[in-house]
Amino acid sequence: GPCTECSCSSGKEPDKDPSHTKKKENGDRPCVPKIFFGTRTHKQITQISRELQRTAYSCVPMTILSSRDYTCIHPVVSSSSNKNEMCVELLEGKHGKSCSYYHGVHKLTEHHALQPVYQAWDIEDLVSLGRKLRACPYFAARELMVGADIVFCPYNYLLDPQIRDSMDIQLKDQVVILDEAHNIEDCARESVSYGVTESQLRAAREELDFMVSNSIRQKHHEPLRAVCCSLI
């Protein structure tokens, strides 16, 4: 059944006993840690959210972080091969255009179907509701993270520092659960790896040749050129 030391099911205030609250913020308000639940694939998140619906904690505030590949509903951006770049261009107002779906995020985050009194939901529910309300599921999920007790996301959202920064994920003093953690090694390697083609290396070498031949920061560019040559 529900635990007795949190407010998730009873609606009561959390226990103010110092033995139950290690850290406080904003005066006497207890700082309750979030649970970050990492999985290998987005499909597994859907399975776990459905399992959450069957528990006593199905009404706990939650959100699901995922890429624009799964949550972008803009008719042009969603069909693009580079969704991230096109999304940023719209948000910055380049070419005199903007994203009406982004400006409707509040309609999605405030909708009763995503509130704790309802029940756990999955990515398909969020996207379907976003289409209905013409509001962006991607940014709505990020905003819901502020008040969420449970945050579901793929491994790399927790392991990759660049993604953590871009998504404003703070793991200090939080609870982290990694499902099927034997896959973590591969994911960690991918997070610090980078793929480059031979044509990119040759183009880089040509630019470095130009820098060196024109005496532009030679001591920095010569070692880089040597690396490119050795890889080629």
From TrEMBL:
BP GO terms, sorted: double-strand break repair involved in meiotic recombination; nucleotide-excision repair
Domain of life (superkingdom): Eukaryota
Biased composition (Basic and acidic residues): 12-28
KW ATP-binding (keyword) present: yes
Gene Ontology cellular component terms for the protein in this record: nucleus
Disordered: annotated span: 1-28
Keywords: ATP-binding, Hydrolase, Nucleotide-binding
Residue span, Helicase ATP-binding domain: 1-228
Stored Gene3D superfamilies: P-loop containing nucleotide triphosphate hydrolases
Listed GO MF terms: ATP binding; DNA binding; DNA helicase activity; hydrolase activity, acting on acid anhydrides, in phosphorus-containing anhydrides
PANTHER family per UniProt: DNA REPAIR DEAD HELICASE RAD3/XP-D SUBFAMILY MEMBER, FANCONI ANEMIA GROUP J PROTEIN
Protein name: FANCJ protein
Protein source organism: Regulus satrapa (Golden-crowned kinglet)
